[in-house]
Each structure stands twice: as structure tokens, then as C-alpha cells.
Design a protein that fits this description.
The complex is a heterodimer of chains A (about 270) and B (about 260). With about 270 residues, chain A is mainly alpha-helical. Chain A is built from twelve helices and no strands. Chain A has a domain at about 60-220: MetI-like (MetI-like fold). Chain A is about 80% helix and about 0% strand. In chain A, helix 3 packs antiparallel against helix 9 and helix 11 runs antiparallel to helix 12. Chain A is globular, with a radius of gyration of 23 Å. Chain B has about 260 residues and is an all-alpha fold. Chain B starts with 5 loop residues before the first helix and ends with a helix. Classes of the chains: A mainly alpha (about 270), B mainly alpha (about 260).
Chain lengths: ~270, ~260
């Protein structure tokens, strides 16, 4: 037993040195204002600032809304791929895997060309109507971030869902259908219960990833959309306010790790 | 199966296409299209050119490509070694200890990568471990970020291993090290290459921690893409982004070839 513990020690020690110890230093620095000493001043300063409260609220509602959007969209698309298959459905499923290996900011970059101030959609509008500017001006608002996050994170929901659907015995669907159940009822009473663990797993992963998303917000480049990770970056790199950045980081870590821990406990209870 | 009438099927497929094409296919096509263009103020891009690619494959862009490839390769190999070690050593532990190891190694997934960047910056900016300003701080942060994913996928594969093989080898007198190198690791090879591909792709596209840490002489591709779009050079940025996607896909494809050859054994 002791020898086995000894073998587990080197990787844990490396993790402690390069991940846990730096994280502990962040917590330590969040209690050390630039004026010296140890106090709660950085916390009271940050909590009192309007920018932090706005960022906290924006982060949470964007993450929750994106997760809901991903769950609904991912469920619908996976249903079609798995149960109303069409020629090329396999290729679409493989495309989803490829999509996962690209960085998130590519989506925002693409949206700039599609809905940007001189992009595809607005260009088509001004060409058709002769107006001087198009109607799509939402990219630099939270809605642009929401659209990008739903697009990028939906495949994270679809992958576990498609895996779960592939294990579902289609005889159950045929039986329900031959007993007179219509498609909506089959989805509600046969498929949805089977999909719940996969939905819970995908949904909570997406929620945490959305809370931590940085690339999409950075590329949006909007002054009006600041999330907690963005605030950490701007405080640390642009303002060199390390105690403030550490406070925001601690808050962000507490929210994300708390939610992730909750998800792991719940999913273990559910036996997923 | 779920929908039987022909009309309903076509309706479902139409809705699928209406959702899928604009949301998922269009963004990648648009980036590809923009990388060959100089203007985009109408439905289609205009001013077709390959100049963006000439800019994206020389000078600082070429240097950023090698930087990204080296960083991703280094971080993936390190993460794979540490993650596999932790997964194998953790699997041999009692349930109680195993849970602790699993929880520790999954933690970097939940911690925001910006915060990982900040913490590495705070910890390694002063002696005795002064790494700030060198390329090693970027590689270190990437390794920390992808180790969790390597550990997760390898430890899932370890629990699926059939113990009969190693028991047979051990009963025939093989020493634990022989069992590890000749039986367990070869059996794990497919999932190891899959994990390596995942780590590599994640590291290639990593932006959040990198933005906090990169020194001027070690600029990975995502940072360069951000710098280009930030100063308004959207079309050059797109070409660099296409180079990034192509490089990632090429490496993933090569790794998947390794996997198919290994699974024949």
C-alpha cells in the first residue's frame, strides 16, 4: 500500500508545485494590498466597484443563457442526427468532432464577417434597400457573445448526447410507435429520460466553460461586455493592479469550482 | 424511425439545415472565404487574392507557427507523461486515495485558464523560479491546462483495461515493469494517441493564459491572430487562422493514423 502511495507521489507533487502552489499565491496576494500589510482592503475595494458587479452579473447570465441555448439546440440537432438520419448524417457527426478541436475565438472572428458593421448580412441589406447601414448591430453587445458561445459550445453537448443515443435500443421507439405514441410523446417519454444523464453532464461542463470563457469576449472587443475572466486580464495586464486581479480571480474560481464540484457530486449520486 | 411520413421527414431535415448551416458550417466557410479576400461589404467577399497567405506563411507568422507547434508538442508530451503516470498510479490506489488524485487532476478544468495564467505569472516572476519572460512559462502554463484532459481520458481507458492480460503476464513470471511496458502501455496506446491529439489541439488554440504570459520572442498563433484583428487586419488574421486550423488538423490526422495501426495488433 505504502509503495503504491509512493508511486502516486511524483505526479501529485508536480501538480502541487506548478498548479496548487501558484493558486495559493493568488489567494495570498488577494489579501495584500499595494500599500502593504495584510487586510481585506482589496476585497472591499473590488466589491464596491461598479465594474466588478456588472462583470459578475454579465458573466452569470451569459453563462446560464448560453447553457440553456446549447442544451436546447444540441438536443434538437442530436435528435435529428440519431433518429431521423439522412444521407451524410455520419459526416455531420464527424464534423462536430472537428469543430471541437478549433479554438473558440474563430467563431467571433467569423461573426465579424457575417454580422459585422460592413459584413455579409449588413452588406446584403444595404445592397437590397439602399440604406446607408444595416440592421445587424448586435455584435458588440452581450447578444453577440451569447450567439458565439451557443455556436461554439453546442457541440460539447452533442457529443455525449450522440453517444447516449447510439446506445438506446431502437426497439423501444418502434414499440412505443406501434402502440400509437406520436413523435413528440416518444421524445418526451422514451428518449428524454435516457438522455438526461448526458444532458446533465454536457450542460454542466458547458456552464463551467462559459463562466471561464475568455477568447470570445476578447475578440468581441466590446467595451460594454466585461466578464470576470476579462476583468482579471484587464486588471492584471492593462492596469497592473495585481491584488485586484487576484480578488476577481478568487471569486471566479470559487464560482466555477463550486459549480463543477456540485456537478461531480450530483452525477455520482445519479450514477452517471 | 421517429418520423415516418415522407413530408414530415423533409420538414425536419429542412429545420435541421436551417439551424446547422448558418450556425456551424457558415463560420468556418466565412473564415476560409475571407482569407482569400481583401474586401467584404456585400454577400460575397471581393478582391480575391492570395497575398494574405503570402503574409501568413513568412516572417513573424511563420515564426508564430513554429512557436505554436513547439509549444503544443512540448506541452502535450509533458502532460501525457504526467497524466498517464497519475492515471496508472491512481488506479492502483484504494478508492479513498484514488478519489483525491482524480479530484486534484480534474481541478485545472474547472479553474478558468486566465486564472491559471495569472497564478503562474504570480508564482514564477520571482526567484528562485524566475521563468517570467522566457518561453518556458508559456509551455508550463499550457502543460498545466492540458494535463487535466490527458489524465481524464487515460484514466477512463485504464479502468476499461481487461485485467486478464496483465494477470496472465504476471502469472508467467513477468516483473511489474515488464507488465507495464510490454502489456499495459501497448494496450493503452490508442487512447494515449487520442489524448495526445486532444492536448495538442487545445494547446494550439490556447489564448487566455497565453495572453497573460507570452514574452515578445515567443508569440503563438492565437496571439498573432488577435493582434491582427485588433489592428483591423481581419483578412490577414483569417489567413493565419486557416493556417492554424490546417496545422491542427494535419497533426490530428497523423495521430489518428498511429491509432489505427496500433489497434490492429
Amino acid at each position: 500500500m505504502n509503495r503504491r502511495l509512493l508511486w502516486a507521489l511524483p505526479p501529485v507533487a508536480l501538480l502541487a508545485l506548478f498548479f496548487l502552489y501558484p493558486l495559493a499565491l493568488v489567494v495570498q496576494q488577494s489579501f495584500q494590498p499595494d500599500s502593504g500589510g495584510t487586510s481585506l482592503t482589496p476585497y472591499s475595494d473590488v466589491f464596491a466597484s461598479e465594474a466588478f458587479r456588472n462583470a459578475l452579473w454579465t458573466t452569470v447570465w451569459l453563462a446560464v443563457a448560453s447553457t440553456i441555448g446549447c442544451l436546447v439546440l444540441g438536443f434538437l440537432l442530436s435528435l435529428v442526427i440519431a433518429f431521423v438520419p439522412f444521407p451524410g448524417a455520419k459526416a455531420v457527426a464527424r464534423f462536430i468532432d472537428v469543430f471541437l478541436s478549433f479554438p473558440s475565438f474563430l467563431i467571433t472572428l467569423a461573426l465579424l464577417f457575417i454580422y459585422g458593421s460592413v459584413g455579409m448580412a449588413n452588406g446584403a441589406w444595404t445592397d437590397l434597400t439602399g440604406a446607408s447601414s444595416g440592421p445587424f448591430q448586435f455584435l458588440t453587445t452581450p447578444w453577440g457573445v451569447l450567439l458565439a458561445e451557443v455556436t461554439y459550445f453546442t457541440p460539447f453537448v452533442m457529443r455525449p448526447l450522440l453517444a447516449a443515443f447510439s446506445q438506446l435500443d431502437t426497439a423501444q421507439l418502434e414499440a412505443a410507435g406501434s402502440l400509437g405514441a406520436r413523435a413528440p410523446r416518444i421524445v418526451r417519454q422514451v428518449i428524454l429520460p435516457e438522455a438526461l444523464p448526458a444532458l446533465a453532464a454536457g450542460g454542466s461542463l458547458v456552464l463551467v466553460l462559459c463562466l471561464n470563457e475568455f477568447g470570445i469576449v476578447l475578440f468581441t472587443g466590446a467595451k460594454g461586455v466585461t466578464t470576470l475572466p476579462m476583468l482579471v486580464y484587464s486588471k492584471a495586464i492593462l492596469e497592473s493592479d495585481y491584488p485586484g486581479a487576484c480578488v476577481v480571480a478568487v471569486v471566479n474560481v470559487l464560482i466555477s469550482v463550486g459549480l463543477y464540484g456540485l456537478y461531480r457530486v450530483v452525477s455520482r449520486r445519479a450514477g452517471a | 424511425m421517429l418520423v415516418h411520413s415522407r413530408g414530415a421527414k423533409w420538414a425536419v431535415w429542412a429545420v435541421f439545415l436551417l439551424l446547422f448551416v448558418p450556425l456551424f458550417a457558415l463560420p468556418l466557410l466565412v473564415v476560409l472565404g475571407a482569407s482569400f479576400a481583401t474586401h467584404w461589404s456585400s454577400v460575397l467577399p471581393s478582391g480575391l487574392t492570395t497575398a494574405n497567405y503570402r503574409a501568413a506563411t513568412r516572417g513573424e507568422a511563420l515564426q508564430a507557427l513554429t512557436t505554436s507547434l513547439l509549444t503544443a508538442a512540448g506541452a502535450s508530451l509533458l502532460a501525457l507523461a504526467v497524466g498517464t503516470w497519475a492515471a496508472l498510479a491512481g488506479a492502483a490506489l484504494k478508492q479513498r486515495y484514488r478519489r483525491v488524485v482524480d479530484a486534484l487532476f480534474v481541478l485545472p478544468v474547472a479553474v478558468p485558464s486566465v486564472v491559471v495564467g495569472l497564478s503562474v505569472l504570480v508564482a514564477f516572476s520571482k526567484p528562485p523560479m524566475l521563468l517570467n519572460g522566457t518561453r518556458w512559462i508559456v509551455i508550463l502554463a499550457h502543460t498545466v491546462l492540458v494535463t487535466a484532459f490527458a489524465h481524464q481520458s487515460v484514466s477512463a481507458a485504464v479502468t476499461r483495461l481487461d485485467p486478464a492480460y496483465e494477470q496472465a503476464a504476471a502469472s508467467l513470471g513477468a516483473r511489474p515493469s515488464t507488465v507495464l511496458w510490454r502489456v499495459r502501455l501497448p494496450l493503452l496506446l490508442p487512447s494515449l494517441t487520442a489524448a495526445a491529439g486532444l492536448c495538442f489541439a487545445l494547446s494550439m488554440g490556447e489564448l487566455s493564459a497565453t495572453m497573460m504570459l507570452y514574452p515578445p520572442d515567443w508569440t503563438p498563433l492565437p496571439v498573432l491572430i488577435y493582434a491582427a484583428t485588433d489592428r483591423g487586419a481581419l483578412f490577414t488574421g483569417s489567413a493565419v487562422a486557416v493556417v492554424l486550423m490546417a496545422a491542427t488538423l494535419l497533426v490530428l490526422f497523423a495521430l489518428s493514423r498511429v491509432r489505427t495501426r496500433a489497434s490492429y495488433r
